[in-house]
Amino acid sequence: MSVATESAATTHDAHHGEPTGLWSWITTVDHKRIGIMYFLTSIFFLLVGGLEALLIRIQLFKPENDFISAELYNQLFTMHGTTMIFLVAMPMAVAFFNYVVPLQIGARDVAFPRLNALSYWIYLFGGLYLNASWFVGQAPNTSWVGYANLTSTQFSPGLNVDFWVLGLSILGVSSIMGGVNFITTIINLRAPGMKLMRMPLFTWMTFVTSFLLITALPVIAVALIMLAFDRFFSANFFNVAAGADPVLWQHLFWIFGHPEVYILVLPAFGVISDVIPAFSRKPLFGYPVVVYAGVLIGFIGWGVWSHHMFTSGMGPIADSFFVATTMIIAIPTGVKIFNWMATMWGGAIRFTTAMNFAVGLVALFTVGGLSGVMHASAPVDLQQHDSYFVVAHFHYVIVGGILLGMFSGLYYWFPKVTGRYLSEKAGAWHFWTTMIGFNLTFFPMHFSGMFGMPRRTWTYQSELGVQLYNQMSTVGGFILGISTLIMLYNVLKSAKSGAPAGSNAWGAPSLEWSIPSPPHHYNFPALPEVRSREPMWHDDERAAIEAVTLAHPAKEPEMPGPSFWPIVVASGVTATWALVMTGVWWVPLIGLAYTTFGVFMWAFEDPFKHLESSH
Amino acid sequence: MAEAAAVAHDDHHYTSTGLNSWKLGFWTLIGSECLFFGTLISTYMVYKGQSIVGPFSGDVFDIPLTTISTFVLLMSSLAMVLALDGVQRGNRKLSMAWLGVVIVLGATFLGFQVYEFNHFYHVGLGLDTNLLGSSFYVLTGFHGAHVFFGVVWLTTLFVMSARGKLPPSKALNVEIAGLYWHFVDVVWIVIFVLVYLIQ
Amino acid sequence: MSSHADAHGHGEGGHASVGFYWLIGIILAVLTALEVAAYYMHETLGSLEVPILLGLSVAKFILVVMFFMHLKFDSKLFAWVFLAGLVLAVFVVSFLMTLYHVVPGWTAAVTGVA
């Protein structure tokens, strides 16, 4: 946070109405500041989740190791998965949604700026609450999928699952509100002439992802509510003795969980669909097809969930259906891969770090996609289910796809955020250590899985013959850890002393590159008129737009003022959920009353009241 | 020329579609709520008739009573559109009267629900008794919580109206509260048939 | 589209008359009465009871959404963002119902409870 504060302070103090200091960050409703806070928080949790992964890797370095206890091991892999998905991958994408989307569509902010701040604070408090479980030594320990009825009070009597079920419920609220906000923003706040089919691909994928957020998150919310009722009020939703079917949890979890996979990966696809054309000096090949493929992935993503459940005995009819849909969804994904390659074909390619990461994504995601098609087949999946082969598969998708995409976006948009380039030299180190460390960690897992090493198991016997693969994975894991530290060093150093960047740092085509770097708090002095898909690549259109966007307005546009109520309501929401833990039904109502107070203060607050006093 | 066009579009209320953002966002949220209630209803339907021990739905449901409360909620929807119409016309008496009717009918529905829950509990159907108890109370309980929230929201609007702070220019506030209220009503239309009438 | 849209806070919608709202309200009441009647006549109606009940409730749903929520008069965009959620919700309900109740013996096979 301090990094961004300083850069904002040095470049903006010429402008009035740009407050600084801690209080201004707590009460901010500016989408750019919220995006920066999202990013830094997700990096913090990346370090936490990474540390958990390294402890797991040390434990697995040799057979029958007892570096950590089996109980702690359960907590570590559960929190590693939960943290990386809900506290790192999703919010890091949301950081880019926040910073980039309004700039790409020519908007001054998102549709609901205070709601946006609320989403961030709930995410932060929910993440802290979830991790507070470490301090009582009872972190969640039933894996990130939390299958019933292992999560029942009978088999998990401690606080572990309580933290998990309540923490995820809190985070879900944040995601649903974010989804509503971005759908409304993208439909309603596009600059004149910014038709849907002129929007940059990143904005398009944000749009699709937002629909997945608002539709998939309620499903897991209900499943979590049911689990909470089972645990706190002795309901029977997953109680086998009462005739309940624990497989229902699996259905509900994966009805959410599979769209969730696309919630994670589509933003990364969006990033590189902007990065690859920018560094190939060529418009995206087959733009409409890439858009439709993204929409189709989002849609078909709803019909494949049970391929996570082939071993649960659904019967041949249901199995066949989900085999078919799963294989079909590979088609639009493959279409995108070919579109990216065709965009690069014959282009004037510049291999900057951002481009390196984008190309790395295309290669590594394809590996993960191929192993995915393998266990799309139910008989094959029966062999691979819950083995390290699956762990290899989804890390190729999630790290090779999502994290590389996010890093690509970091190098691409950093100059816009700070006005300075990230160091390309440190970037090269970051990229190559990531590539080597990543492949060394996860490629051997295909083999250890094939040899029969089950996932989520504390240790293994030397007779299994997987020691070498595990040692490779552990060494690779530490190289990945070092690469993350290089990235952190690069970000901290370049924010202060990186080479200065102009408004269009890369000669890229979209609207966010038409305004100064870093942007003014109002983004656009006046709204530009867009006439094409690549406005900054057509000289007369660019000149017309920059005449508007780089102009100094006689009077700054009026922006909504800071608000204290989002953080109040966020703390109320978190407290309400957390107080459910007391097990006394009326105690959460205290939190609810406090939340209600915050909501009323919010509702009757005039967002523009600060202007009356200064006029 | 571009500048002139830009300046013309430059005000707080500009949207690319000409639609109000609050209303659009609220419809999106309603789309999201469909999945929330859809999942609760799915669970109820999956567990329908699967309870091992009684009481079963045939033992506890009182169709005439629920028909009355269903009718009450439906008519509150009618009162809601009439209240909105009153606010849009700037007729404060009319809007206050109909808002009051919605609130009373909503509270009546909640009263029926409290009576129903209490009655079921006393004939032996607790949250922890069987699958029916769990899935029924959680589904209808969350619907009831939505009704309760709606009553609080509409009461706030009623007070604003009474203080003369609900002129036609603020009709959108009432319209969005109305969207919420009607949505809660259509959820009950689905629940009434799937939970109560089809057994 | 229409520039005066948010001025009176009614989207693009035309105003329906008060009489029209009353008419819809009466139709809704009648449909509810028919539903309850169908419930009590289930022996006469036999296998038709469930389709009739579903049809009546769909009709009520559509009436409220189209007229009370003004979706018929309002911008198609509102309908689209709503339908995105509604269609998926119907999909989820029907798919789970199919898995659990239509595929024969499925629940029994999984839970061991008939």
TrEMBL record, chain A:
The keyword Transmembrane helix applies. Pathway: Energy metabolism; oxidative phosphorylation. It is a multi-pass membrane protein. It catalyses: 4 Fe(II)-[cytochrome c] + O2 + 8 H(+)(in) = 4 Fe(III)-[cytochrome c] + 2 H2O + 4 H(+)(out). The chain crosses the membrane at residues 36-56, 76-97, 118-137, 163-189, 201-229, 249-272, 284-305, 317-342, 354-374, 394-414, 426-448, 468-489, 586-604. Keywords: Cell membrane, Copper, Electron transport, Heme, Iron, Membrane, Metal-binding, Respiratory chain, Translocase, Transmembrane, Transmembrane helix, Transport. It comes from the Bacteria. Its EC number is 7.1.1.9. It is found in: Cell membrane; Membrane. Residues 25-531 form the Cytochrome oxidase subunit I profile domain. It holds the Pfam family COX1. It is an enzyme of class 7 (translocase). Belongs to the heme-copper respiratory oxidase family. Cytochrome c oxidase is the component of the respiratory chain that catalyzes the reduction of oxygen to water. Subunits 1-3 form the functional core of the enzyme complex. CO I is the catalytic subunit of the enzyme. Electrons originating in cytochrome c are transferred via the copper A center of subunit 2 and heme A of subunit 1 to the bimetallic center formed by heme A3 and copper B. This is Cytochrome c oxidase subunit 1.
From TrEMBL, chain B:
Residues 1-199 form the Heme-copper oxidase subunit III family profile domain. Signal peptide: none annotated. Pfam families: COX3 (PF00510). Its main location: membrane. The chain crosses the membrane at residues 24-47, 67-84, 96-115, 135-159, 179-198. It is found in: Cell membrane. It is a multi-pass membrane protein. Belongs to the cytochrome c oxidase subunit 3 family. This is Cytochrome c oxidase subunit 3. It comes from Gaopeijia maritima.
Automatic annotation (TrEMBL), chain C:
It is found in: Cell membrane. The chain crosses the membrane at residues 20-40, 52-71, 77-100. Coiled coil: none annotated. The keyword Lipid biosynthesis does not apply. It comes from the Bacteria. It is a multi-pass membrane protein. Keywords: Cell membrane, Membrane, Transmembrane, Transmembrane helix. Pfam families: COX4_pro (PF03626). InterPro entries: Caa3_sub_IV, Cyt_c_oxidase_su4_prok. NCBIfam families: caa3_sub_IV. This is Cytochrome C oxidase subunit IV family protein.
